[in-house]
Amino acid sequence: MDTNNYSIVSEFVFLGFTNSWEIQLPLFVFSFLFYFASMMGNFVIVFTVTLDDHLHTPMYFLLANLSVIDMQFCSITAPKMISDIFKKHKTITFCGCLTQIFFSHAVGGTEMVLLIAMAFDRYVAICKPLHYLTIMSPRTCLYFLLTSWVIGLLHSLVQLVFVVDLPFCGPNILDSFYCDLPRLLRLACIDTQKLQFMVTINSGFISVGSFILLVISYIFILFTVWNHSFSGLSKALSTLSAHITVVVLFFGPLMFFYTWPYPTSHLDKYLAIFDAFITPFLNPVIYTFRNKEMKVSISRLYSHFMHLRKIS
User: Fold this and answer.
1) What is the pLDDT of residue 147?
2) Which of 12, 44, 126, 261: CA 20 to 30 A from 237?
3) What is the pTM assigned to this prediction?
4) Beta-carbon neighbour count of residue 36 at 10 Å?
5) How far apart are CA 162 and CA 104, in angstroms?
6) How many degrees, rounded to 5, is the angle at CA 261 between CA 260 and CA 265?
7) CA distance 101 to 156
């Protein structure tokens, strides 16, 4: 077929979740509250780590950057979805769709690498405490952060460069509330099986590979602690449980999206909601309420601002 005869698709239509008012209203309330809570919770972490000198350590530097990434990640799709809930005709421009795909993969890839850096930080802190500040120097932390963003951006660009010039002549309906590569490739007017395989290998490899690497690192840390001191095992488990919870919640839906061979759009949509709203909300909850230093710092900053308010 001659690609010059294709009509160009200028926008895509989202089917969303439902047109039923009984479901739309609770969905709107749920989405708005979780998005607001995610943004506020992660902002509190960034704000606290930035202002409290006691938290100017490698672990909290990485944690604050994870919160920044989470705010970006949930802002890629959540505002659009919330604003579309009550619309009968939910659309997104072709450029808007590609932009959404680019940033979701770039930020998601960055978070994967940053979680690996946080696991390495915990390994050094637990297994090599005397060398912790030497190994996890400010320069090393900055290197981890820059590496995370470079890998995330490259991961996204490698995939998107093959999609930009694909012909789309219709249909233009996406059974979802956001744009993503697997759904978009199925709408192209040419055979995209090779591209779909490439996306599966690229995104599937980075998600599954990162997850396996993290699990192995946590097991290695626990065995190392157990061999040195059985009493320290419970403390290590307590420290790592928060990291393990975040890793499972973040990687679970992603591995399903890119490795499950049979697309099930309804399940995909609900898992996508979990990844877009729940995980960014749970990150500050897990890292704040399970962390005594964070709770003390938040309380200290709150008391300080209340004191300044009384003085003024």
Assistant:
1) 95
2) 44
3) 0.86
4) 13
5) 17
6) 75
7) 8
| d(C-alpha 75, C-alpha 62), whole Å | 20
At residue 94, what is the residue type? F
**What is the Cα–Cα distance from 130 to 132, expressed in whole angstroms?**
6
Phi then psi for 280, rounded to 5 degrees? -60, -25
- Amino acid of residue 75: S
Whole-angstrom distance, CA of residue 55 vs CA of residue 50? 8
Write phi, then psi, for 14 (nearest 5 degrees): -90, 135
pLDDT digits 0-9 by tens, 138-163: 999 999 999 999 999 998 998 888 88
Q: Is the dihedral of CA 29, 282, 78, 272 positive or negative?
A: negative
pLDDT in tens, 120-134: 998 888 888 889 999
User: Per-residue pLDDT for 100 more than 80?
Assistant: yes
Q: Which of 61, 63, 77 is nearest to 111 (CA)?
A: 63
Secondary structure, 3-state, 23-41: HHHHHHHHHHHHHHHHHHH
The CA distance from 193 to 1, in Å, is: 17
Three-state secondary structure readout of the chain? CCHHHCCCCCEEEECCCCCCHHHHHHHHHHHHHHHHHHHHHHHHHHHHHHHCHHHCCHHHHHHHHHHHHHHHHHHHHHHHHHHHCCCCCEEEEHHHHHHHHHHHHHHHHHHHHHHHHHHHHHHHHHHCHHHHHHHCCHHHHHHHHHHHHHHHHHHHHHHHCCCCCCCCCCCCEECCCCCCHHHHHCCCCCCCHHHHHHHHHHHHHHHHHHHHHHHHHHHHHHHHHHHHCCHHHHHHHHHHHHHHHHHHHHHHHHHHHHHCCCCCHHHHHHHHHHHHHHHHHHHHHHHHHCCHHHHHHHHHHHHHHHHHHHHC
Strands 11-14 and 90-93: antiparallel
Contact (CB, 8 A) for 108 and 158: no
